[in-house]
Amino acid sequence: MNNRMDRHRQHKRGRWIALGVVIACLLGIFYGLNTIYRSVSSSLSDSYTKIHEKGGRPADAIIRKGQPISILLMGTDTGALDRTDKGRTDTMMLITVSKTKGIHLVSIPRDTMIAIPGLESTFPQKINSVYTFTNVSDTMSTISKYLNVPVDYFALVNMGGLEKLVDQIGGITVKSPLSFTFSTDTSHETGKNLYQFYKGKTTFRYAKDGVHFKTYHKMNGKAALAFTRMRYEDPRGDYGRTERQRLVIAQLVKQAKNPALLLNKTFMSSISKNLRTNLTTKDMLSLATEYYNPKKKVKAISVNETSLWYEGISFQVMPRLEQQRVTNELRSDLSLTHATTGPVLAGNPDKFTIPQAVSQVLYANTSSNSQAATSN
């Protein structure tokens, strides 16, 4: 195994998909459209890939009791643009679903530095490489250990779903937070299939040949993918890209309120080919019929990390105080008692050495006593 797999330059093609596709496949979570959902459940049962990875709790029993659950949403950078390899989970979102508190989302930055449990000799790694090195089960376990919260279910989707989803709902209108030019061929400002977005405007320009531009008022799937992929020209880096992802997600949710656009057998069969999950159709129906609360909105919980270059690689480091704050939020959402957050950088601290520069970020604004108290 190459113990520096993630040292190579990240593939610059599409970086996120998970939530948009899962909105289609798990739409009942948001809108409780159980009647229509039942009409396509047989199609779903036959077409999406079910695997039997389990979290740390008897989640099916938890759903039967109506208690809060968690779902790890992972989007791989494969399945479109000619990518067919296993890929990395460049989108990772932990979603909590509660009858009383609604739906909360925690986006975990793809460049978050960790030591993969059981593979600490490969430290440092990025959290999006856990799946590449291991499997779905170990990825669920790593997130669970890192934040000290149970991960009950997962949904793993690839890039092949976003274009279909946006096109199926007839496109979306999004106001860009900044001006930028992006080629889906080169991932830079020049090349063919060139898009130009403008700050404060919903209109954008596109040139297939990179020269002759036309103006458009609504994004199709390819345009939405380009809008969310750009990273290197954004002065806010991953945080800016995350904002653009949220803008697209908000429009997807808004458009998806029309069930006729999505909940039909042809589309569900097509989109579900891009999905792997351990949620059964029965689980989905239970979430749709029992957990839906129209008065509870979807809430995004931000994660504040610090950028750090280490051995020529750009990482995001989550300070221990921030790690504890996120744990507190998630455990509260899941109606669990307060507990200390998970291990430093997720791995066994006896099996790897934390560089001083990283340690300074981890324990910023904490005393030596609090450092010792939270380092176990």
Automatic annotation (TrEMBL):
Pfam families: LytR_cpsA_psr. This is Transcriptional regulator. Residues 138-154 form the HTH cro/C1-type domain. The chain crosses the membrane at residues 16-37. The keyword Cell wall biogenesis/degradation does not apply. Gene3D superfamilies: LCP protein. Keywords: Membrane, Transmembrane, Transmembrane helix. It comes from the Bacteria. Belongs to the LytR/CpsA/Psr (LCP) family.
